[in-house]
Write a structure and sequence with these properties.
The protein has about 350 residues and is an alpha/beta fold. The protein has helices at about 25-30, 40-45, 60-65, 85-95, 110-120, 135-140, 160-165, 190-195, 200-210, 215-220, 235-250, 255-275, 275-290, 305-320, 335-340, and strands at about 75, 100-105, 125-130, 150-155, 290-300, 325, 350-355. It starts with about 25 loop residues before the first helix and ends with a strand. The relative contact order is 0.12.
């Protein structure tokens, strides 16, 4: 029998799968323990998926090509997330430069800050702020700045947020129907559905996700089956409600189309719960005053409602002479990246350069 060396760590088993269905998030994903299950993480990456609990930054090369970070630059990452883009920028603004990272999520922000600190970025090079990018001028002011040389916003939610069932962003796992990026503010998706009228829900499904069956889904959300509790409380409950309701009202609708409608319902609710369009509009309005003359901004969007806003604001700024140059065409991820990371498929990147005064 093989003997364990005297200084070896005692072997401890991963908690045994208790045989319930569905399995819990923390039992299910070996990727949540990457040190121990490195080969499992590699298998997940090779299949084009993102290991649970991590976020793979999208279009890093393209972001760097458009932002052109140089030593000494002051950069702002408005959507710090897991810090992937921030790390790539921080490496390039040294020596002498710094990055201010901003995120509205109070749960993920400390983890990312700790991770960047452990990578060697002290307070003189990296500052982490909990807040909404709608208040970017105020964040710059607290750092003693009026403008920055580079600004990045990579919109939407991170894989850590999406994958964590307790946050309620996805129906992959059962969880409370919450969807708040900042769980200590505002109302959850469940409360929003209970409070809003059918018409309001139909409008938000239409405006936030271009949902073709907006009216029907809004009526499903408001007419719960007899005996159901007052509010739709879980991710699985709303997924079932929309899927079954669409299938019985529109029996010829393909399964794939039903799935797309469920996804768009989640997207529309998330945008409404987090007031995402209004935050984006504020950011787009304050960008010119927050950029140093000649400074550069990159925005990565994930659906048409966001991209339309960015495109319009950049083009209007160009016509007004606020921007010296803006992207003519949207930049998409390479075929290789899209293959390796499915979340890159819908990403669109636009850039602009602040005119010199
Ligand atoms: C797609 S992730 C960013 C990923 C990041 N670029 C990386 O490399 O890991 C988007 C992040 O933006 C944050 N966020 C979304 N809207 C925000 C807002 N209005 N203000 C600040 N942060 C926001 C989310 O909490 C999330 O962490």
């Amino acid at each position: 029998m093989l003997k364990r060396p005297p200084d070896a760590q005692p072997h401890s088993r991963r908690p045994r799968y208790p045989g319930r269905n569905p399995r819990g998030f923390h039992d299910k994903y070996k990727e949540l323990n990457p040190e121990r299950y490195a080969s499992d993480v590699q298998k997940v990456l090779a299949s084009g998926k993102t290991p649970a609990g991590t976020h793979r930054p999208i279009m890093v090369e393209e972001v760097l090509r458009c932002l052109r970070p140089r030593a000494g630059d002051v950069a702002v990452d408005c959507t710090l997330g897991g810090g992937g883009h921030a790390r790539a920028i921080l490496d390039r603004v040294q020596p002498g430069g710094r990055l201010i990272g901003l995120d509205v999520d109070p749960l993920e922000l400390p983890r990312t800050e700790a991770h960047l600190r452990a990578a060697g970025f002290g307070p003189e090079t990296f500052a982490a702020h909990h807040g909404n990018f709608a208040g970017l001028p105020q964040v710059l002011a607290t750092e003693g700045l009026v403008t920055a040389d580079l600004i990045l916003a990579d919109l939407g939610v991170s894989s850590m947020q999406l994958d964590n069932p307790d946050r309620g962003f996805s129906y992959k796992e059962p969880g409370p129907l919450d969807m708040r990026m900042n769980p200590s503010r505002g109302e959850s998706a469940s409360q929003l559905i209970a409070r809003a009228s059918e018409e309001t829900l139909a409008n938000l499904l239409q405006e936030n996700a271009d949902e073709p069956h907006a009216r029907l889904i809004a009526s499903l959300l408001k007419q719960q089956p007899p005996g159901a509790p007052g509010a739709i409380a879980t991710t699985h409950a709303i997924e079932r409600l929309v899927r079954n309701g669409l299938t019985s009202a529109l029996p010829n609708l393909a399964k794939a189309d039903v799935k797309m409608s469920v996804r768009r319902t989640f997207q529309a609710l998330r945008i409404a719960v987090n007031d995402e369009f209004s935050a984006l509009d504020w950011l787009l309005r304050s960008l010119p005053q927050c950029l140093t003359p000649g400074g550069r901004v990159v925005m990565i969007t994930f659906h048409s409602g966001e991209d339309r806003r960015v495109k319009k604001a950049f083009q209007a700024g160009y016509r007004a002479g606020v921007y010296a140059a803006v992207a003519d065409e949207v930049i998409r991820s390479t075929k290789e990246e899209t293959f390796a990371n499915r979340r890159a498929a819908s990403a669109k990147l636009r850039w602009a350069v602040r005119a010199s005064d």
